[in-house]
Amino acid sequence: MFFWNWILDLFSYFGFKKNAKLLIIGLDNAGKSTFLDRLADSRLAQNPPTWQTRSKQLDLGRLRFTAYDLGGHPTVRRVWKDYFPAVDGIIFMVDSADSKRFEEAKTELDSVLTCDVLPDVPVAVLFNKIDRKEAVDEDLLTAQLNLHTSKTGKEYTPREKVGRRPVETFPVSLVKLMGYGEAMRWLAYYIE
Known about the structure:
With 192 residues, this protein is an alpha/beta fold. Mean pLDDT is 82; it is low at 1-15. The radius of gyration is 16 Å and the shape is globular. The chain has 8 helices and 6 strands. It has one domain (2-191): P-loop containing nucleotide triphosphate hydrolases (Rossmann fold), CATH 3.40.50.300. The chain is 34% helix and 21% strand. The longest helix is centred in the N-terminal third of the chain and has 12 residues, at 2-13. It has a 6-stranded mixed β-sheet, sandwiched between helices.
């Protein structure tokens, strides 16, 4: 393992990176497009609803992600599964300040977590907008989405010891630059 990591580090030093595909999905108005813009060029912008797929290249350590923001309106959600066969990781965004939509978010997340095409793909669930006063804390939202038994843990546990799909929750604020770096490092660990 040490030798393999050394080779990968050497390739990374010379600009060679492993390519990976990342899907950013979740309900509309959860912050997916803002998240993609934050990752790609550190800008914070108010985006219109996403009706067409957006993609950007992102470099993280030894990985070069092609990240796809698929949109979250009910009509757009039907195409999510078209992207599943070729994906290496999923970011599922939840608006932690919109408690009226937690059940809808749970339904969509459950369909992702039970999809036969994605048995081993790691899923990072980002509870966005934690900076708002009406935001629900991580434990309560984890319970609302019924994720307590699914979570892998934020520590880096080797995949063979996890024994199932890696899933973890991360409270984030794109406005205050909090939490999403940890989520991306966790995801990259399971993709490398």
